[in-house]
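Trying the structure run again after the queue cleared.
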Amino acid sequence: QVQLVEAGGGWVQPGGSLRLSCAPSQRMSDASIIAWYRAAPKKQRAFVASFSNRGTSDFADSVNQRASISRDVAKNTMYLQIDGVKPDDTAVYYCYARFRLTDYWGQGIQVTVSS
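Done. Tokens:
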């Protein structure tokens, strides 16, 4: 069983930046993919960004040009940053990882964009 520990949520002003972290309980490099999803109020969970073990990243159109995803191997942590946040970025953000063909989810972390 793999645990994914998320951190960094909270309140952000419009136009600011949010930075979330996800630390898996197993070595991150063993995951075939690590990603972020989010569930906006009254909406289904949707893809935000991903990073594969091949070194490729992918982003949803809703955050493209505003988001970046990175890894710190020494800290075994993956980061998502979204700049120029908007109220539409308000959501519960979930870290996701696939280890050995099994999907794992974090508990979710609330991000609220509001003035």
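The mean pLDDT is 95. Worth checking whether this holds up in the mutant runs.
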